[in-house]
Amino acid sequence: MSNLGQLIEIPTHGDERGSLSVAEIGGVLPFVVRRAYWIHGTKPGVARGFHAHRKLNQFCVCVSGSVRIVLEDAKGREDVFLNRPDRGLLIGPGVWREMHDLSADCVLLVLADGEYDEADYVRDRQKLT
Ligand code: TYD
Description:
Elements (H helix, E strand, L loop, with lengths): L4 E5 L2 E4 L2 E4 L13 E6 L7 E6 L4 E7 L2 E7 L2 E7 L4 E5 L4 E5 L6 E6 L8 E2 L7
Antiparallel strand pairs: 1-9, 2-3, 4-11, 5-10, 5-12, 6-9, 6-11, 7-8, 7-10
The site of thymidine-5'-diphosphate has 6 residues, from strand 4 and strand 5.
């Protein structure tokens, strides 16, 4: 369970060939995707993130391997473990996020509703409202 983020089961079509998961508007995606990026090849012991966003919405899917995502706002902090390509984590504005314990084979896909904008970043945890 997650309160600071929303864990979402991604519709997955499985048959004898394997599985195909779908994220689309009208389905699990609550926004139009304007940017996609993915984190991979993470070196052992490295943690990433350590910021919040002012306006950005993101949908994170660990399409390979595993990652522990720490979410935090002024009211609390929690861990969310992602290790399935058929589950997504929706993170809205104002939520601090950190990515820890990325497995060597971790590929973390992030779909976002805005282009990269450094002005949208909050990098000072004390400024979380
Ligand atoms: P960074 O913010 O350090 O990633 P993380 O949040 O995972 O710690 O981003 C690494 C580099 O990539 C940094 O130079 C900014 C750049 N970048 C882009 O150019 N576009 C993007 O969409 C993102 C997320 C990062």
